[in-house]
Design goal:
The chain is 38% helix and 17% strand. It has 650 residues and is of the alpha/beta class. 42% of the residues are buried. The mean pLDDT is 94.
Length: 650
């Protein structure tokens, strides 16, 4: 038997046990291949039903135990070259499998499983201890502690209102100033989503029929999710990309939508750097197979994704919370941090699966936990702060909307903090300022819309280009000091990054695959040719003013009061101005707003020797630090964007 076959057997078997540690032995069977290799396979439901007594027998359990002990022994003797690529220092698939196995076993020892018939309680298992690969040694959570909330943040919480929903009255959590009925809003989003999907389906049929006769139909192209006929090569990164980083730099692997797998190096008191993993909002499948199917592939099966040490949930909407996906994460028993109001849901699921719930924590705005890890005899610390999101919660019309909605700031890496915004509309100025003042955010993960239909989205979903505004207000203002050297500012700014997620996955509203990329490009290109853009805007404004003069004369001849005339002219002026700017410049209202804000931001900066930051320079800065990654790509958070072009969608 070749080494490759033997290592494949080890990888398969240890992954299988890691993913089924909480289940009984009847879920696994041993299959002997022609080459003599023995691998663990899932037992089919029918086989479990009729052969339950055999698959649960001591003899079957003993065979599994013996096979795994042999695999663990072999894995402990394999040379490092089979775990880590010599040239690239990339972990191999074998490394990823054993990392997951070791972390799963360590967690099961720390938090014993509750069901006596689980594999963890029936099989004597040992961790893989390979002296050549210390990175594989499992970690352990020593403590999770509450941290002091700064005094100016303690009273900043969601508003709680007693409101009637379908099945009764609930204590509904709301962002300050939010009075919108989001259930009705969600209904309109559902309608616009299904309308576009229907028109796209009709279009596909028409295009196919026309193609048979040599004609090309483009009328329906705007309704297709891939409006630009984007290819898989443009959308997806190399499938061989490892989600796990064992180097010294923090990285982010994008699995799709809001699911990030972050590898964050922490430094021990002795100065050792070791990466710990955080996963956010894992949703592997469809929202609904019929109504909300996934439009792009999940980058990597959760069964084959390395073990996370920390799990973060931003809120409980079904594109961020998926019960089946969460079940898979439970097997590794990471520290699970969820919004206040959602812990009971997770505790119930833990009990159902046979886990205790002591590793599940619920946070409200600005509450903070410190997680103390131990690995290889050294201790490491990570802090997680729950931050405000401008959104809502609930699952369907019967949901009480009583849990909160969060972003998170992750601290512990000595180079800076990571901000995961979750799902949010644009935050108010007070919350942006608090994020800027209380943290050293260097890496900023922002949601890319959905952008349209904006009137139904703007109260709960920021436009993609609002992420540019967050980049400037939250990070660039943090490093700016009046009178500083412009060169020093640009050097520091080049080290910051905004990375988009919550895009390129589902059809929500009038969302299309390239919306985030297209919107960013339009605003930044307008800044690139600032003088031309401003000249065109002045021409448009002058043209509209002339039209309003004629309209004023027309309305004055009618029996209207001066106030009525003024109101009608103001309404028409605003409407025509928006339409003309979109037609001539391609900028929608929300894109024009961010364009104006970025211009104003650049104009307010004052550097040494009376230097200014010109709009085209701000555009170039943002182009070099704002990223829309390919699905399945791993972004090095400290490396320059230009050095990672193979991983970029934008």
């Amino acid at each position: 038997m070749t080494d490759a076959i033997r290592y494949s057997e080890i990888k398969t078997n240890l992954l299988r046990i890691a993913n089924h540690i909480h289940k009984d032995a009847s879920h696994l069977r041993i299959k002997k291949l022609k080459n003599g290799q023995e691998i663990l396979k899932k037992t089919h439901f029918i086989c479990r039903l009729f052969l339950q007594s055999y698959y649960s027998s001591k003899n079957h359990v003993h065979r599994i135990e013996k096979l795994l002990q042999k695999n663990v022994q072999l894995a402990s003797e394999i040379e490092r070259a089979h775990y880590v690529e010599a040239l690239s220092s990339e972990p191999t698939e074998l490394f990823l499998a054993i990392q997951k196995y070791n972390e799963t076993l360590s967690a099961a020892n720390t938090h014993p499983l509750l069901k006596s018939r689980s594999l963890a309680n029936r099989i004597q298992l040992g961790v893989v201890k390979n002296t050549q690969v210390s990175e594989l040694n499992p970690s352990k959570v020593l403590a999770v502690k509450d941290m002091q909330v700064p005094s100016d943040l303690q009273e900043d919480k969601p508003e709680i209102n007693k409101e009637r929903r379908l099945l009764g009255k609930y204590h509904v959590r709301r962002y300050p100033g939010d009075v919108i009925d989001h259930s009705k809003e969600a209904g309109r989003i559902f309608s616009s989503t299904q309308r576009e999907r229907l028109l796209s389906g009709i279009g596909r049929v028409c295009e196919a029929v026309a193609g048979l006769f040599g004609f090309k139909v483009t009328t329906f192209q705007k309704y297709h999710y891939r409006t630009h006929q984007e290819t898989d090569q443009q959308i997806y990164a190399d499938p061989k990309t490892s989600p796990l980083n064992i180097g010294k730099n923090p990285t982010s692997y994008w699995l799709g939508h809001a699911t990030l797998f972050l590898s964050i190096p922490l430094k021990s008191e002795k100065g050792t750097l070791t990466s710990f993993n955080v996963i956010t909002d894992p949703v592997e499948g469809d929202l609904n197979t019929l109504l909300y199917p996934r439009q792009t592939k999940f980058a990597r099966s959760l069964d084959e994704t390395p073990a996370p040490h920390v799990y973060l949930l931003s809120h409980n909407h079904l594109d961020h919370y998926n019960k089946e996906s969460v079940k898979k994460i439970f097997a590794q028993q990471p520290v699970m941090i969820v919004p206040k109001g959602d812990r009971d849901r997770y505790a119930k699921l833990a009990k159902e699966l046979g886990f205790d719930s002591s590793h599940i924590y619920a946070l409200d705005w600005w509450e903070k936990k410190e997680i103390q890890f131990e690995k290889n005899g050294e201790q490491f610390r990570m802090q997680i702060t729950a931050t405000p999101a401008r959104h809502w919660s609930g699952q369907g019309p019967c949901g009480g909307h009583e849990s909160t909605f969060l972003g998170y700031v992750i601290q512990g890496n000595e180079e800076g903090d990571i901000y995961f915004a979750g799902d949010t509309a644009r935050l108010n100025d007070d919350h942006i300022a608090k994020l800027k003042d209380h943290f050293n955010i260097r890496w900023n993960f922002q949601p890319g819309g959905p952008d349209e239909v904006r009137k139904d989205m703007e109260s709960t979903h920021q436009a993609s280009v609002d992420g540019l505004w967050m980049h400037t207000k939250m990070m660039l203002l943090k490093i700016y000091q009046k009178g500083m050297s412009k060169a020093d500012f640009l050097k520091a700014a080049a080290e910051l990054k905004t990375i988009y997620m919550h895009t390129m996955t589902f059809k929500l509203g009038n969302l299309h695959l390239s919306d985030t990329k297209d919107s960013l490009e339009k605003v930044l290109e307008a800044l690139d040719v600032y003088e031309e853009t401003q000249e065109k805007i002045k021409e448009i404004e002058k043209e509209i003013e002339n039209q309003m003069t004629l309209l004023h004369k027309k309305l004055s001849s009618k029996k209207l009061t001066s106030d009525q005339v003024t109101a009608k002219i103001a309404k028409q002026k605003n409407k025509r101005l928006k339409q003309k700017i979109e037609k001539e410049l391609g900028l929608k209202t929300y894109e024009k707003q961010v364009y104006d804000e970025l211009v104003q931001f650049a104009e307010t900066l004052e550097f040494a020797q009376d230097q200014k930051l010109h709009p085209h320079e701000l555009s170039q800065l943002l182009k070099s630090t704002v990223i829309v990654p390919k699905i399945g790509s791993r972004t090095d958070l400290t490396a320059m964007k230009a050095d990672q072009s193979q991983n970029l969608f934008f």
